[in-house]
Amino acid sequence: xxxxxxxxxxxxxxxxxxxxxxxxxxxxxxxxxxxxxxxxxxxxxxxxxxxxxxxxxxxxxxxxxxxxxxxxxxxxxxxxxxxxxxxxxxxx
Length: 92
Known about the structure:
Layout: H1 2-12, H2 21-41, H3 77-90
């Protein structure tokens, strides 16, 4: 009977290395955070747009930035008329 119990216990034991799931998850999260930190710190220089260099052709300017702040938006005559009417109606 002792042999049967030993065989039973031996079969019930998992083979190979045993891992703690929580420890593995914590290690994975740590590695992912380290990778993210490395990526965030490995950024290239970002050009700064100032009044002095806004017309410098070597510095790329995003499309939504106007190079001339006094530049009017492209409105058609109908749009301009509707805008004036709206402004007048809201002035009451």
